Amino acid sequence: NYIPPVKRYFLEMRFKPMPQYHAGALVREGDAKTSPVGKMFIQPKVTLESGEVTLLDNVIGPNFAVIGWGCNPLWGMSEAQIQQWQALGTRFIQVVPDTQIHTDQDNHDGVTRIGDTQNRLRAWFAQHNAALVVMRPDRFVAAIAIPQTLGSTLNKLASVMTLTRATADIPVEKVA
């Protein structure tokens, strides 16, 4: 009989449901059921430019992070926003396929470039149809964006967090 073991499983709280936030330091857009916003981010292994393989947590440290898949995470931000988020200790990270970590590419000041060792980050970004993720220090997703909407998304997040708002109301006129 399977009923007693299943009942005991729930009564003893052996299950651990995935935590999720619905309010707070989040910018939720789109379908809340499928959105990664408010959910814990994955913890993949990544390759540093030095060749060392480590966990993404070790790269970020106890900070906010703006992580871009194959793009410069500063691209959609105004200079005022960059300064505002740097003042919070935010890490700006560009993820590239692991095979590209040692190729010559444009490195951007203030941006750490890492390789996707396990291809988990590529899969995560593809699943959520985003190029950028804003992550809180507790490793929950605060927002997702594309470079063209990152500035306004960060303005909304700053407002929710009651930070002094940096100006990013100037439309982004860049072409990728």
UniProtKB/TrEMBL annotation:
Protein's UniProt name: Bifunctional 3-(3-hydroxy-phenyl)propionate/3-hydroxycinnamic acid hydroxylase
Gene: mhpA
